[in-house]
Amino acid sequence: MKRSRYLLSAALVASAALTALQPLLAGAQTAGTPTASLPAANESTPGAAPVNSGCELHVWGAGRPNFKLRPNAFIKITVDPAQMDRSNPLSNASLFDTVSRANALSDDDLKKLLPQAGAVTVVRHAEMIDIDKTPLNRIAGRLVQSPTSCYADLVIGNLYAIFPNPEMAWERAGAIGALLVGSDRLVIEFWLRDFSGPKAGGKTYKRKNDSPLPHVQPLTIEMKTAMEASTTANFRSFVDFVGQQRLR
After folding, report:
1. Hey, is 35 helix, strand or coil?
2. pLDDT digit string (tens) for 196-218?
3. Which of 54, 57, 49, 56 is nearest to 118 (CA)?
Protein backbone atom coordinates (compact mmCIF):
# COMPACT_ATOMS: atom_id res chain seq x y z
CA MET A 1 0.00 0.00 0.00
CA LYS A 2 1.37 3.41 -0.90
CA ARG A 3 2.29 5.35 2.21
CA SER A 4 0.21 8.49 1.99
CA ARG A 5 -0.47 9.50 5.56
CA TYR A 6 -0.16 8.50 9.19
CA LEU A 7 -2.59 8.54 12.04
CA LEU A 8 -1.16 8.47 15.54
CA SER A 9 -3.70 7.75 18.26
CA ALA A 10 -3.61 8.17 21.99
CA ALA A 11 -4.27 4.48 22.52
CA LEU A 12 -1.60 2.92 20.34
CA VAL A 13 0.74 5.80 19.57
CA ALA A 14 2.27 4.28 16.46
CA SER A 15 5.51 5.84 15.27
CA ALA A 16 6.83 7.13 11.97
CA ALA A 17 8.46 3.73 11.53
CA LEU A 18 5.32 2.11 10.13
CA THR A 19 6.41 0.15 7.09
CA ALA A 20 3.01 -0.05 5.41
CA LEU A 21 0.80 2.94 6.03
CA GLN A 22 -2.82 2.76 6.92
CA PRO A 23 -4.94 5.10 9.02
CA LEU A 24 -4.34 3.80 12.54
CA LEU A 25 -7.24 4.87 14.65
CA ALA A 26 -7.44 2.27 17.39
CA GLY A 27 -7.86 5.16 19.70
CA ALA A 28 -9.34 6.53 22.78
CA GLN A 29 -12.68 8.08 22.16
CA THR A 30 -14.23 9.10 25.42
CA ALA A 31 -14.75 8.64 29.09
CA GLY A 32 -17.72 6.86 30.53
CA THR A 33 -20.14 6.27 33.33
CA PRO A 34 -19.18 6.97 36.91
CA THR A 35 -18.13 3.67 38.46
CA ALA A 36 -16.21 2.55 41.51
CA SER A 37 -13.19 1.84 39.31
CA LEU A 38 -12.78 5.43 38.16
CA PRO A 39 -9.39 6.89 39.13
CA ALA A 40 -9.00 9.19 42.11
CA ALA A 41 -8.29 12.88 41.74
CA ASN A 42 -4.71 14.08 41.46
CA GLU A 43 -4.62 17.54 42.98
CA SER A 44 -1.93 19.88 44.22
CA THR A 45 -3.02 18.70 47.68
CA PRO A 46 -3.64 14.92 47.40
CA GLY A 47 -7.00 13.66 48.56
CA ALA A 48 -10.66 14.00 47.70
CA ALA A 49 -12.09 16.80 45.61
CA PRO A 50 -11.86 20.11 47.51
CA VAL A 51 -14.85 21.65 49.24
CA ASN A 52 -15.31 25.27 48.17
CA SER A 53 -17.97 27.79 47.26
CA GLY A 54 -16.75 28.14 43.67
CA CYS A 55 -16.72 25.75 40.72
CA GLU A 56 -14.78 22.54 40.20
CA LEU A 57 -13.51 21.52 36.77
CA HIS A 58 -12.36 17.89 36.65
CA VAL A 59 -9.97 17.11 33.81
CA TRP A 60 -9.59 13.58 32.42
CA GLY A 61 -7.87 11.62 29.68
CA ALA A 62 -9.64 8.58 28.22
CA GLY A 63 -8.47 5.69 26.08
CA ARG A 64 -7.53 2.01 26.08
CA PRO A 65 -4.60 1.72 28.50
CA ASN A 66 -4.13 -2.02 27.86
CA PHE A 67 -4.27 -1.85 24.06
CA LYS A 68 -1.51 -3.76 22.26
CA LEU A 69 -0.57 -2.96 18.66
CA ARG A 70 -0.33 -6.21 16.71
CA PRO A 71 0.17 -6.95 13.01
CA ASN A 72 -2.30 -9.11 11.14
CA ALA A 73 -2.90 -10.49 7.64
CA PHE A 74 -3.65 -7.02 6.30
CA ILE A 75 -1.35 -4.79 8.34
CA LYS A 76 2.40 -5.24 8.71
CA ILE A 77 3.78 -2.91 11.34
CA THR A 78 7.26 -2.17 12.56
CA VAL A 79 7.32 0.17 15.55
CA ASP A 80 10.46 1.89 16.78
CA PRO A 81 10.77 0.73 20.42
CA ALA A 82 12.02 4.18 21.42
CA GLN A 83 8.70 5.65 20.34
CA MET A 84 6.81 3.32 22.69
CA ASP A 85 8.92 4.12 25.77
CA ARG A 86 6.53 5.79 28.20
CA SER A 87 9.41 6.69 30.52
CA ASN A 88 10.72 9.06 27.82
CA PRO A 89 8.68 12.32 27.83
CA LEU A 90 9.68 12.90 24.18
CA SER A 91 8.38 9.56 22.85
CA ASN A 92 5.14 9.29 20.91
CA ALA A 93 3.78 7.06 23.68
CA SER A 94 4.09 10.03 26.03
CA LEU A 95 3.24 12.88 23.68
CA PHE A 96 0.09 11.25 22.28
CA ASP A 97 -1.22 10.08 25.64
CA THR A 98 -4.56 11.77 26.44
CA VAL A 99 -3.69 12.24 30.11
CA SER A 100 -0.39 13.88 29.18
CA ARG A 101 -2.15 16.24 26.77
CA ALA A 102 -4.77 17.10 29.40
CA ASN A 103 -2.05 17.84 31.93
CA ALA A 104 -0.27 20.09 29.44
CA LEU A 105 -3.25 22.47 29.32
CA SER A 106 -2.78 25.45 31.63
CA ASP A 107 -5.12 26.22 34.51
CA ASP A 108 -5.78 29.66 33.03
CA ASP A 109 -6.98 28.19 29.73
CA LEU A 110 -9.05 25.49 31.44
CA LYS A 111 -10.85 27.99 33.67
CA LYS A 112 -12.14 29.80 30.58
CA LEU A 113 -14.60 26.92 30.12
CA LEU A 114 -16.50 28.27 33.15
CA PRO A 115 -16.37 32.05 32.64
CA GLN A 116 -19.43 32.64 34.82
CA ALA A 117 -17.72 31.24 37.91
CA GLY A 118 -16.12 33.59 40.40
CA ALA A 119 -13.51 30.95 41.24
CA VAL A 120 -12.62 27.66 39.55
CA THR A 121 -10.64 24.82 41.11
CA VAL A 122 -9.02 22.59 38.47
CA VAL A 123 -8.80 18.95 39.56
CA ARG A 124 -6.59 16.79 37.32
CA HIS A 125 -6.96 13.01 37.22
CA ALA A 126 -3.76 11.07 36.65
CA GLU A 127 -5.06 7.70 35.44
CA MET A 128 -6.60 7.11 32.04
CA ILE A 129 -10.30 6.21 31.97
CA ASP A 130 -10.75 2.90 30.14
CA ILE A 131 -13.42 3.59 27.50
CA ASP A 132 -14.15 -0.11 27.11
CA LYS A 133 -15.40 -0.11 30.70
CA THR A 134 -16.92 3.37 30.78
CA PRO A 135 -18.16 4.43 27.31
CA LEU A 136 -19.17 8.04 26.80
CA ASN A 137 -22.76 7.38 25.77
CA ARG A 138 -23.50 5.80 29.15
CA ILE A 139 -22.47 8.74 31.28
CA ALA A 140 -25.46 9.76 33.36
CA GLY A 141 -23.94 12.19 35.84
CA ARG A 142 -20.75 13.42 37.43
CA LEU A 143 -17.65 11.29 37.11
CA VAL A 144 -16.82 11.81 40.79
CA GLN A 145 -18.86 12.75 43.82
CA SER A 146 -18.45 16.33 44.97
CA PRO A 147 -20.29 18.53 47.47
CA THR A 148 -20.15 21.60 45.24
CA SER A 149 -23.16 22.51 43.10
CA CYS A 150 -20.98 24.12 40.40
CA TYR A 151 -19.16 21.25 38.74
CA ALA A 152 -17.95 20.17 35.27
CA ASP A 153 -16.07 17.23 33.70
CA LEU A 154 -13.72 17.78 30.75
CA VAL A 155 -12.48 14.72 28.88
CA ILE A 156 -9.87 14.43 26.13
CA GLY A 157 -11.22 11.32 24.48
CA ASN A 158 -9.41 10.96 21.17
CA LEU A 159 -6.10 12.29 19.94
CA TYR A 160 -4.08 11.56 16.82
CA ALA A 161 -1.94 13.23 14.18
CA ILE A 162 -2.35 13.21 10.42
CA PHE A 163 0.81 13.27 8.34
CA PRO A 164 -0.28 13.65 4.68
CA ASN A 165 3.30 13.57 3.45
CA PRO A 166 5.56 11.75 5.93
CA GLU A 167 8.51 11.87 3.52
CA MET A 168 8.70 15.67 3.51
CA ALA A 169 11.74 17.37 5.04
CA TRP A 170 11.63 18.14 8.74
CA GLU A 171 10.74 21.72 9.58
CA ARG A 172 13.04 23.79 11.73
CA ALA A 173 12.15 24.59 15.33
CA GLY A 174 11.54 28.22 14.36
CA ALA A 175 8.52 27.13 12.34
CA ILE A 176 6.60 26.57 15.58
CA GLY A 177 6.50 30.20 16.72
CA ALA A 178 3.35 32.03 17.65
CA LEU A 179 1.48 31.06 14.50
CA LEU A 180 1.49 27.35 13.77
CA VAL A 181 1.99 26.39 10.16
CA GLY A 182 2.59 23.14 8.35
CA SER A 183 0.79 20.40 6.48
CA ASP A 184 0.45 18.04 9.46
CA ARG A 185 -2.65 18.20 11.67
CA LEU A 186 -3.31 17.36 15.31
CA VAL A 187 -6.84 16.09 15.91
CA ILE A 188 -8.34 16.12 19.42
CA GLU A 189 -11.84 15.23 20.57
CA PHE A 190 -13.08 17.20 23.57
CA TRP A 191 -16.10 16.34 25.71
CA LEU A 192 -17.46 18.68 28.40
CA ARG A 193 -20.35 17.92 30.77
CA ASP A 194 -21.24 21.17 32.54
CA PHE A 195 -23.34 21.05 35.72
CA SER A 196 -22.80 24.73 36.54
CA GLY A 197 -26.01 25.93 34.85
CA PRO A 198 -29.71 25.56 35.60
CA LYS A 199 -30.29 22.50 33.41
CA ALA A 200 -30.95 19.37 35.47
CA GLY A 201 -28.42 16.65 34.68
CA GLY A 202 -25.98 19.11 33.15
CA LYS A 203 -25.34 20.09 29.55
CA THR A 204 -22.92 18.32 27.21
CA TYR A 205 -20.63 19.97 24.67
CA LYS A 206 -18.48 17.83 22.40
CA ARG A 207 -16.40 18.51 19.35
CA LYS A 208 -13.52 17.06 17.37
CA ASN A 209 -11.07 19.85 16.51
CA ASP A 210 -7.93 19.86 14.44
CA SER A 211 -5.05 22.33 14.43
CA PRO A 212 -1.78 22.68 12.48
CA LEU A 213 1.17 20.61 13.69
CA PRO A 214 4.64 21.48 12.37
CA HIS A 215 6.41 18.56 10.69
CA VAL A 216 9.25 18.32 13.17
CA GLN A 217 11.43 15.34 13.94
CA PRO A 218 10.13 12.85 16.54
CA LEU A 219 11.93 12.23 19.83
CA THR A 220 13.04 15.87 20.03
CA ILE A 221 12.21 18.80 22.28
CA GLU A 222 10.94 20.53 19.13
CA MET A 223 8.25 17.86 18.75
CA LYS A 224 7.23 18.23 22.41
CA THR A 225 7.00 22.02 22.01
CA ALA A 226 5.00 21.64 18.79
CA MET A 227 2.56 19.24 20.45
CA GLU A 228 2.01 21.56 23.40
CA ALA A 229 1.47 24.61 21.18
CA SER A 230 -0.90 22.75 18.86
CA THR A 231 -2.85 21.26 21.79
CA THR A 232 -3.29 24.72 23.33
CA ALA A 233 -4.50 26.19 20.01
CA ASN A 234 -6.87 23.25 19.61
CA PHE A 235 -8.31 23.64 23.09
CA ARG A 236 -8.81 27.40 22.75
CA SER A 237 -10.86 26.70 19.64
CA PHE A 238 -13.01 24.36 21.72
CA VAL A 239 -13.46 27.05 24.39
CA ASP A 240 -14.72 29.43 21.67
CA PHE A 241 -17.09 26.74 20.42
CA VAL A 242 -18.55 26.18 23.90
CA GLY A 243 -19.01 29.92 24.36
CA GLN A 244 -20.90 30.17 21.07
CA GLN A 245 -23.11 27.21 21.99
CA ARG A 246 -24.05 28.81 25.31
CA LEU A 247 -25.31 31.90 23.49
CA ARG A 248 -27.85 29.90 21.52
Report:
1. coil
2. 877 767 889 999 988 888 888 88
3. 54
How many residues are listed for the chain in this entry?
Answer: 248
CB burial class (10 A; 0-12, 13-18, 19+) of residue 178?
A: exposed
Q: Give the amino acid at 99.
A: V
* Element of type H or E holding 229: helix 221-246
What's the per-residue H, E or C state across 142-203? CCCCCCCCEEEEEEEEEEEEEECCCCCCCCCHHHCCCCCCCCEEEEEEEEEEECCCCCCCCE
Cα–Cα dist 57/115, whole Å: 12
Q: What one-letter code names the amino acid at 170?
A: W
DSSP per-residue letters across 53-94? SSEEEEEEEEE-TT------SS------GGGG-TTSTTSHHH
Q: What is the mean pLDDT of the chain?
A: 73
Residue segments in the chain with a per-residue pLDDT below the cut of 50: 1-37, 39-52, 77, 175-180
Residue 120: what are its φ and ψ, rounded to 5°? -125, 125
| Angstrom distances, CA of residue 142 to CA of 41, 66, 147, 186, 217 | 13, 25, 11, 28, 40
Q: How far is CA 151 from CA 54, 69, 123, 197, 198, in A?
A: 9, 37, 11, 9, 12
- pTM to 2 decimals? 0.74
Predicted confidence at residue 206, as pLDDT, reads: 92
Q: How far apart are CA 110 and CA 122, in angstroms?
A: 8
CA distance 221 to 229: 12
pLDDT computed for residue 4 by the predictor: 36
Amino acid at 165: N
**Identity of residue 75:** I
Domain ranges of the chain: 6-246
